[in-house]
Design brief:
The chain is 22% helix and 32% strand. The protein is an alpha/beta fold and 505 residues long. The longest helix has 22 residues.
């Protein structure tokens, strides 16, 4: 029977910091980057040994600037990697020189252990244990040594883990060690501790190895007879799997050893290409624009700054020097308009920002009291913050105001119009899709030299409000092109066509 850990999957909120820690500091190989199979807009990274062998894999779902989770029972709380025992001192020195938080060395189950924190706060242990790598990658840790599960039902959790080829080993304080032929699962009794909350900095699941698809199907049949909380059978292209929750609540996956990561990349070029799951091929180009970019250790990268709004760049292969600054609609995020902007100008650098006001969990640029009633104080304060963001982005990233076109949709377009009223001359060029005025007391402003394209929707219930904004823009000196498209409130291909024409592309 094939036994042991196949991989462990966690969630990160900062892809660049994640790359720098796992591929940079730890030296693991990035063996695959894909869009998520459940959510094609989500980047999924796989680290491992030279070939991404089962037992070496740590994978990350990327939720850029996503809400933080909480470690608690019903979760994988710690991951551990095996390193040669004689290298523990070198790893300690390396961590201290990189200013990485480290504790130890101390001994656990008779083994020397260093405890590190990754950029998301995940506990990563380096354990001195001779576990040869299936395919060694430089001086990286050799493989997964263990995972630690937090549970309130230690006996039941341990009994469930046994079905994946583990037996009970030593018990040290509140931790029961389960042993397979290749690695360990430490089941820690945390009775009375808080339950885990999903989010960034938290493990999503641990996967155990299955020899082949038949083994997965056999496990599915067995678990179904036990009335376990099994989910659907999944083909993940690189392995086939199913999921189940153990009695303590931790999500567990059973994954086949094959076909592996070399089915679409050669061993020499693993991890170099961003792949989109087969069922998302029609959206492949849009998805590649939406997913966050990163630089491998040693490569040139944009040094991201701490500005008032969460933001993200997309840099095309052959940029033309122009920048499109994106302001999403209600419920959107900094990447929502990137596919549209990329279609308008494939050579433009895209800078997406995220609104800071929230309404029932959805991001907005300012609060509202009703369909056409808005929090005026919030508009003013957020516009002031945006002014600081805009000027900070220019100074921090070497941008030029005259090269920036603001593209706003709905709430984002309304916000851009308010910014132009409160901070004239800040925005030099803007495309406002489905806009309206949201300021109750609209000031006079010198908009001479400001170019604006407004795109209203003929069947948009809010379309009638665009006329007032257009009148104000014209009266205050903006060079205005105002059009009404045969559309509703949603964006259409006509928006892209008209924006291209207006920008002379």
């Amino acid at each position: 029977m094939t036994s042991g850990i196949h991989h462990v999957t966690l969630i990160t909120r900062n892809v660049q910091a994640n790359i720098d820690f796992y591929a940079g500091f730890l030296g693991l190989r990035l063996v695959k980057q894909t869009g998520g199979f459940e959510d094609g807009e989500q980047l999924h990274l796989f680290y491992g040994d030279a070939l991404g062998s089962p037992g070496s894999l740590i994978t990350f779902l990327v939720w850029e600037e996503g809400a933080r989770g909480r470690v608690g029972h019903g979760q994988v709380a710690e991951i551990a990697l095996a390193v040669p025992p004689e290298s523990i001192g070198d790893w300690l020195t390396r961590a201290l020189s990189r200013q990485i938080r480290v504790e130890g060395p101390k001994r656990e189950f008779g083994e020397p252990v260093l405890r590190l924190k990754d950029p998301d706060g995940v506990t990563v242990k380096l354990v001195g244990h001779d576990m040869p790598a299936a395919h060694q990658w430089n001086s990286a840790p050799t493989r997964l040594h263990s995972v630690t599960l937090f549970t309130e039902t230690q006996e039941e959790t341990a009994a469930f883990i046994k079905r994946f080829g583990y037996s009970e080993g030593q018990c040290e304080e509140t931790v029961l060690r389960m042993v397979s032929d290749t690695d360990f699962v430490d089941v820690r009794n945390v009775s009375g501790f808080v339950p885990g909350i999903p989010g960034t900095g938290i493990a999503d699941h641990v996967a155990f190895r299955a020899k082949d698809v038949d083994a997965v199907k056999a496990a599915e049949a067995e678990l179904s007879r036990l009335n376990s909380s099994i989910t659907n059978f999944h083909d993940r292209k690189y392995f086939t799997s199913l999921y189940v929750r153990e009695p303590g609540g931790t999500l567990i996956e059973l994954a086949t050893d094959g076909p592996g990561f070399t089915i679409d990349e050669t061993p020499e070029h693993l991890g170099e290409t961003l792949f989109v799951p087969p069922h998302n091929q029609e959206r492949a180009q849009d998805l590649k624009v939406i997913m966050p970019q990163f630089a491998m250790p040693g490569e040139e990268r944009i040094a991201m700054r701490d500005l008032p709004f969460v933001h993200r760049f997309y840099t095309p292969e052959n940029p033309d020097g122009s920048v499109i600054l994106l302001l999403h609609g209600t419920g959107g995020n900094e990447a929502d308009l990137m596919p549209m902007a990329h279609r308008i100008n494939p050579r433009a650098t895209l800078l997406g920002a995220r609104g800071r006001s929230h309404e029932e969990g959805t991001a907005r640029w300012f609060r509202r009291f009703g369909a056409t009633q808005f929090d005026q104080a919030d508009i003013h304060s957020e516009a002031e913050a945006f002014n600081a963001f805009f000027e900070g982005a220019i100074a921090s990233y070497g941008l030029k105001a005259e090269d920036i076109t603001v593209l706003g949709y709905s709430n984002g377009a309304n916000f851009a119009a308010a910014v132009m009223a409160l901070f004239p001359k800040l925005i030099r060029r803007a495309i406002l899709c489905r806009p309206m005025h949201v300021l109750e007391d609209v000031p006079q402003a010198d908009l001479s030299g400001t170019e604006v394209l407004t795109l209203a929707g003929k069947s948009d219930p809010y379309g009638k409000y665009a006329e007032g904004l257009n009148t104000w823009l014209s009266k205050n000196g903006a060079s205005l092109t105002a059009e009404t498209l045969n559309a509703g409130h949603q964006l259409s291909q006509d928006d892209i066509t008209r924006a291209k024409e207006w920008l002379h592309l």
